[in-house]
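The records we work with from here on pair a chain with its fold. Taken together, the tokens spell out the fold as the letters spell out the chain. To see the layout at work, look at the sequence and tokens printed below.
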Amino acid sequence: MNRRASLAFYWVFRGLIVLFCRAFWRVTVEGKEHLPKSGAFIVSPIHRSNIDFAVVAAITSRRMRYMGKDTLWKVKPAGWFFTAMGGFPVRRGTADREALRRCADVIEGGEPLVLFPEGTRQTGPLVGEVFDGAAFLAARTGVPVIPIGVGGSEPAMPKGAKYLKPVKVHVVIGAPLHPERSDTGKASRRAVRELSERLRDELQRLFDEAQRKAGA
């Protein structure tokens, strides 16, 4: 599939996904003015449910890119679908640096990249430690990190649930967090750690606000 066809496919299916989210979960989004209108950036949402991927699609019509385990691409039609929807494969068990290299390639291509800084789904109202991947990539490439609070997604589909619940979901987009750049262009451990801490604090604030407005 060429790029134009892939983008057309993405816009159609993204539109259907967002339409469902708005109808079923009454998804509302605030803070869109914080999203860069062009160029790459890193979207860093809270992660409490499998529906977070779908809900985050509502923040922008631009195609966003997601990492996925390479086994999802073993069946051709499935691989074609995931690629068209912005996914790219990373080998399970591969070194973190290989996954980060693939992510850096996406950023250098000028596209938004979605990275859940908590890693896997978490539960509860508190944001714990976050992984340094988003901060490292931001410091290495110079792109901003956009923190995203998602309220209501956990009761909409809790971990282990088989069915969706039609509860209210609200998304709050935070102001960009800009990395500190060194004269050498390298990411210092201190700068990465500080950006991760800022991201964690901002995620907690946005999560609290999103939860309150979702009535969760």
About this structure: The chain has one domain: 3-214. The first helix runs from residue 3 to 24.
